[in-house]
Amino acid sequence: MKYDTTKTLNKMRQEIIFKDGTFSIKTKVLLAIFWSISIRCSPCLEFYVNKAKKYKVTEEEIKEIILVAAVMGGCPGEVWGLEAYKIFSKNNSKNGCCDAQENK
Length: 104
Prior knowledge:
Structural class: mainly alpha
Radius of gyration: 14 Å
CATH architecture: Up-down Bundle
CATH class: Mainly Alpha
Number of strands: 0
Helix content: over 70%
Mean pLDDT: 86
């Protein structure tokens, strides 16, 4: 039996995160950034921070979610929060592993 985990996860991502529901897509992307900082996943961070730009997350919003992650995560949260802000501040279109799978 063959499982295509990445394809299944991408489908779930599209159905859960990138659709408005009780929470807006923008809020869910911010939550995904928080989670990416928490688990220290660089490709996820790159992917969701770039998605944040697409969904019009402001600099003030990204800073606030980073501050919450930093406070909750202590020193590692601060380090990864700074990484998120660095990605947000860049003007590039490079995305993480999640984006590569999204286009398949």
